[in-house]
Design goal:
The protein has ten helices and 17 strands. The strands form four sheets. The chain has an eight-stranded mixed β-sheet with strand order 1-2-8-3-9-16-10-15, covered by helices on one side. The protein has a four-stranded antiparallel β-sheet with strand order 12-13-11-14, with helices on one face. A three-stranded antiparallel β-sheet has the order 4-7-17.
Length: about 400
């Protein structure tokens, strides 16, 4: 665990925040600072076919150590951190033998990580927690996954008695801005299937995610002197308000869970003459997903008829539910489930209420379920990760490699 902790702390010290407004890949050059460190480290631990392409995608190989022909499998994690919260000057705190109760992250700013708000904290009593200092995120999403994969590969190199087939690993940029798989070379990767190590709490095993679309609504109003505005003014702000009220009031992120879909308006700006709404549409069920897009189109059509042709709607699909691609090869989920059970980890199979590189990769021909990395409260100052969960993630990766060699005929 000391080696694992050391790796993780080194990785989170590098600012790798991605930028959604960028047109380059990677979206920020600073992601390459970590990428170069990882390439050096992969060579150092004896990985083969280590490469980094012009877009910052890293790939490497751990050769098979058995004569039996088994499928080539892969493990993938992303290097970037979210643009939602600063990842600069991360200063982790190590809480050994957590005794339960509140953890003061920052006295000056009165930032407290409390089980009264985050009740899952209590299950980690007696363990070592890695937290933020209350001013940045931690970066366990997904530098924990990176550290776990490299540590697992090093362990397999040092323990040739553990038999396995050919293993491919990859580290990607820009996952947090939805572009982590856009330039991933599936053919070069050459695996029959893979696992992203990018889940949250210990035991998570996910093979389905949202179908997702983004939408932009642009409303063009007419500004007239308010004293003489009757039957002349079109207030784009009020039109936008009416559009919002026509969406299902309870189908929003803060009122849904599990497989329940939603509409989420995350940005609104403008004035009387022009208002722009940005929203996302999410649903696990493909038919419900299409119905949500149709409902938004119907609302826009209705309001356009009422106020004149003053509303423009653009909807763009972003990713789809990987379940469609994983179910036909469900044994890849069962191998991960068996690996967890053999390590006394209770598998938590649940849908991802979001997206993952694995979703896009699955539709690119690389079926790719998602496995826990161990962290909690991603994307903010309350982020933390139990070191023991990270160790278990390493053990799961190793066991998957071993079981694939044993179980696949």
């Amino acid at each position: 665990m000391e080696q694992l902790l050391s790796r993780f702390l080194e990785y989170v010290s590098v600012d790798t925040q991605s930028d959604p407004s960028s047109t380059t890949t990677p979206s920020t050059k600073k992601q390459l600072n970590l990428a170069k460190k990882l390439v050096t480290e992969l060579h150092k631990i004896g990985m083969e076919e280590v490469s980094i392409d012009a877009n910052g995608y890293i790939m490497a190989t751990l050769p098979s150590n058995i004569q039996k022909e088994v499928p080539t499998i892969g493990f993938i994690a992303h290097m970037d951190t979210t643009p939602d919260f600063t990842g600069k000057n991360v200063s982790p705190q190590i809480i050994e033998n957590y005794a339960g109760g509140d953890i003061v992250l920052n006295v000056k700013e009165n930032v407290v990580l409390s089980p009264s708000y985050f009740p899952e904290l209590e299950q980690y009593q007696g363990q070592t927690l890695i937290t933020t200092d209350g001013t940045t995120l931690l970066g366990a999403d997904d530098k924990a996954g990176v550290a776990e994969i490299i540590t697992a590969m090093e362990h397999l190199r040092e323990h040739p008695e553990i038999k396995h087939g050919k293993i491919r690993i990859a580290f990607t940029p820009d996952e947090e801005i939805g572009k982590g798989a856009h330039k991933f070379d599936v053919e070069k990767f050459g695996a029959q299937w893979a696992y992203t190590i990018d889940g949250s709490q210990i035991g998570e095993l996910e093979f389905e995610n949202f179908n997702a679309a983004g939408a932009t609504v642009t409303i063009t109003g007419k500004s007239v002197h308010p004293g003489y505005a009757k039957n002349k003014m079109i207030n784009a702000i009020l039109v936008a308000n009416e559009l919002i009220t026509l969406l299902p009031a309870h189908e929003v992120p803060e009122r849904t869970e599990g497989r329940e879909g939603f509409f989420h308006i995350y940005k609104m700006e403008g004035e009387i003459e022009k208002v722009t709404l940005e929203l996302i549409i999410r649903d696990h069920d493909a038919e419900h997903f299409e119905a949500r897009k149709s409902l938004l189109e119907e609302i826009v059509e209705k309001l356009s008829h009422k106020f004149g042709d003053c509303i423009n709607l653009s909807i763009k699909d972003q990713y789809f539910n990987m379940r469609e691609k994983v179910e036909p090869v469900f044994h890849i989920v069962e191998i991960a489930e068996d690996a967890m059970k053999s390590l006394n980890i209770t598998p938590i199979l649940k849908p991802i209420r979001g997206g993952t590189d694995g979703s896009q990769l699955s539709f690119m021909g690389l079926p790719c379920p998602n496995i826990f990395a161990g962290g909690h409260n991603f994307h903010g100052k309350y982020e933390y990760i139990p070191l023991q969960s990270m160790q278990k993630a390493v053990e799961v990766i190793v066991k998957i490699c071993e079981l694939t060699a044993i179980q696949i005929k």
